[in-house]
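Re-running the complex after MR caught last week's input typo. The corrected sequence lines follow. Everything else is unchanged.
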Amino acid sequence: MERNVIIASTLEEAVGCKTPDAAFYAGGTEIGRLGSPVDAKTLILLKKIPELYGIRVTGDPETENPSGSWLRIGAMCSFQEILDCDAAPAWLKTAVRYLASLPRRFKATVGGNIASWRSDSYLIPTLLAAGAKLEIAGMEGGEDPDQNGNGAVPGRRILALKDYMEEREQLGNWLITAVYADLSHDLKVLSEHFSNTAQSHAYLSLAMGKKGEDYRIGMAVAGCGIYAPGILSWSRAWKEAGVRDDLYGSEEYKRYLAGITLDEFYERLNQEASVN
Amino acid sequence: MKISCVINSVPRTFDADPSMKLRELLVQAGHVCVRDSDDSEGFCGSDTILMDGKPVYSNLCIAAEADGTEIVTPDALGSSMKLSAVQQAMVDAGVVQSAYNAPAAALLLTWLLDRVPDPTREQIRDALSGVYIRDAGYEAYYLAVQLAREKIRGGAYESITAPSFRPEYHFIGKPAGKVDAPQLVAGERAYVEDFLSSDACVMKVLRSPHASAYIRSIDTSEAEKVPGVVKIISSENCPDIYYMQAGQGNPEPSPHDRRLFNRKVRHVGDRVAAVVAETMEAAEEALKLIHVEYEVLKPVFTVEEAMAEGAPLVHNGIVEYRAGAPADLEEYNKKAGDEREGRVIYQFPLGADIRHNVAAGNSGGIGDVEKAFAEADAVVERTYQTSQVQQVPLEPHVCFARMEGGRLAVYASTQVPYHVRRIVGWVTGLPENKIHVIKTRVGGGYGSKQDILVEDLTAYAAFVTGRPVYYRNTREEEFIANSTRHPMRMRVKMSGKKDGTITGIFMEVRANTGPYGNHCLTVPMNSCSKTLPLFKCANMAYDLKVYYTNTPPAGAYQGYGTPKGTYALMMAMAELAEKLGCDYKEMVLKNHVETGYRLDILKGLGEGREGNVVPVGSCGLREAILKGCELIEWGKKEISDDPDVKIGKGFAMIMQGSGLPGLDHSEAIIKMETDGTVILNSGCADIGTGLDTVCAKIVSETLCMPLEHVTVLSGDTDSAAFDTGAYASSGTFFSGNAAVDAARKLKKMVLEEAALQMGEAEEDLELRLPGEVVSKRSGKVLTYGQMSHALCAGDGRGMLVAHGSYITTASSVPYGAHFAQVAVHTKTGQIRVQKYYALQDAGTPINPELALCQMYGAALKSVGHTLYENMVLDEKGVCVNANMTDYGVPTVWEQPDDFRAILIDVNDADGPFGAKSISEIACNGAAPAIGIAIHDAVGVWMESWPMTPEKILRHMGTI
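Corrected-run output:
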């Protein structure tokens, strides 16, 4: 299928071009892949926007407290760059590793993986469990261009990934520009990615994070969706997800796996906390 | 859009659609080695390139991304005349076999070594994580990296590439590289798609959305109006000729139960119509405009459904027999259904009854099993089920055909060029002298290219249109409209005495052949004929029936029915050992056959004919068992550090064949060129396994001449003589023996001619390297070049040409034993194969490094079948995982942690230079070895494959 391609060189240009029948094109490993649900007439290529690259330690993006310890990961950073980054936390590298193909790791981007919001996502359950935040940009809330069409300034927001999940439908024209990962020492995150083979789509991805006395769960069930239930409400979320038997196994099996895995995560996180 | 980039250090500018796949742009730019194996699924890695120094899949890049980048494609690494260190190391390690993505693997390893000169095993594994390799497995790639490191660092190898055998020979049994490997690893033109002409039309096939339906009408009028459409072929205008797609000797033991297009569709994906068009866009547009009205029928999907009383019939037309028609045929045919059912024509009786969905059947045995069961100390009776799995070669089925000078030329990726020619002759009506089949290099076959699945239609389309026609299956079509392993249900009853003697074995096989009967008798027969003869048991019986259903088609797959039969028998034996309180190893040792044991069971197990009763010939089975037990420390219980993980061990004895005695047939024509070099025109079909190299080594050894002075041209029906093809493990044994015969005849001619030219007695002459005749009496020397020049100098007796052939009733059986150690997580049911040792007796391994890699590849494939692979159909017969990612082929991550292939040195009396077959047998051991190991670990008997975590948990009662 022949498509229009816009090679954006600035964030303003990329966001300004976004219409409902256009799609941001990050790494292309999902959009360009066989069976992709993206049917956009126009692709907005992001690879030439410098602002979308780079990994650096920074303060809390919401409070701008410089003492906070966060990792800002540009949305166009590839999975492999995260693996190669010394500052990236181990729990994030574990999630990145779920993409078992090296050439795809070099192309897949952190922003693209989140934006595609696949129910077999490599990163989202872990990022939800870790309380990650997103930086997004969109023309809504920005400054309009002048009479000549110049000078448009996109609006920017920082929000928790969990909030992005709630608002995602309304943020269709917004671009994820960066992901913030909490580097606090007291944050512990465990994850598991269940798939038939290493290269198969995951049928169940689970993560649990603990910071202080706060527990967070990230859960992705193939064919159903992505969830961030509370620690006591995961089984209700499971029921509401409407998980069904599929080629990877029965609902009963997947529910059993989810249960024992979350139990084990809880136990391990508590053990580690008590050791600390 | 103008796209400027640097490709392999050359600045290039293209005016291209920015949204096109970058791979297509690169291929158009001449980089044909950037191939496609998965329709942009991002799985196989055949399309790997480096972009700005990073490995990426070019099918997952759009052309616009290339602008301003620096690209390296695999053909930049080196040419076949001058390979890079990595390419050469891959050749020497034996991993360059069917090689469809070998160039991509070479690129990835080069990239790795450029950055990490001394990579760890984990880094190598990660580098290979993006390439799917089905033929050679991954294990020998670690060796390739080691060899490349040594070469780069010190200029020479320190490691041994593979063991050598038979010190008395120069070439046989020595690792010497594969003759076509340099061309393949360098990514040069070799496969069907590389021979396309620019005027080639494309063909696309409209496929049935229904599992069973009559076609009421097809309206192609709108489709025909699409500009560029050349021809639409359907059941309305195709020849009324019934044939089968199985590549087997004539007369075939498969029913002729299909036309090019039928008026009844019998599976989701069945052919409905084909569009030949000048462009892909026109073909795809036309497909959408073909209007088909179906009369949907109730399908059957399993043998249980098919055998049920009153089940819908998959075939219910007129039945004909070419020979051996039953007396009541006329009466039988009165029950035929709708005329759209078509016909089913048998070459001879197969025990079929299509009015009950039975495509074939057979039963027989020796001794008295019922008496054995009655008198036994213990009896085990179990039913095992295997799933539908696919060969999944990297190169999909592909064909290019064109009329050339009034003849039909067919470029085919096939295991059976002569069968392709015969079947193309049937559907076109052309005599065989008007058809030229050119077997190109084959990017993976594993039995699926033993069947004529695309050549029939492509060749017919070229013939009927007079236009060059190119056809290539999509990956989805590979799954739904190709051939697969027959799903089988096997009931085994086995009895024994307390001392471990097996007294009786009964196998009931119920196989699912899908909608057509390709290999419907031979595959299930193999589940008995290549398993029961492992046992020294006086009472054995079998009963098999094969059912038509509406699943995707089944057909030939490496191992035929043997992996399934072995799985059932060895699992039952292990359970019987437990029941009798015997050690499984001791029971195996007590009951396996040995050289000289007369195999009476074979009498009824021919391929539709009476089988040959022969004694066991060369046999390395016991040595394989004992050595394997020692290596894996049989009897020693392993304990995991993780209390939730239990470890177990298992093994299975295995056998196969070396071709089909009394049925297979090979020929070779050899000629000495005027400079004394030799060309062997072999009828054989090298499908990547190194058969050309086998033949070249045989000629070199026999004629005492360097390997580089021998060229093997194979698989070309114009230049060579008949060969039944590369299947049933026949290549080395049959085609190799034909090469031996031809070379020996040429040797005799050389000696006769040399005697004349040298004025010496023939008995005083002998051949010696590097291709010369020497007199033991006088010391005079005549080189082949001198002799051959004289033969063709105007006053000579003409070029020396010899014709060799081989048929036999001898049966050279390869044996072996495969061992597995698994770790089972008792909470999740997940299984990790920690150790896998494949020990096999291949007679003389003519190409040892290639033999080892084929063992790795076949064993890993079978690990895949055992644990992961499964075609899943929904209630309408739609395959819901017809893609690489969901289907579950193993890649480097699933490879056993400790993986060894070991050749047991046995010399065979009938094989060429003592060789037997090697690769097919390696498919047979994984399921029982892993199944028995799982039982050893957690105490459950797995009665079906794939052995998934969920099944394990259910067997354990956890869920």
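None of the earlier attempt is carried over here. Residues 2-76 of chain B form a domain with the Ubiquitin-like (UB roll) fold (CATH 3.10.20.30). The longest strand of chain B covers residues 502-514.
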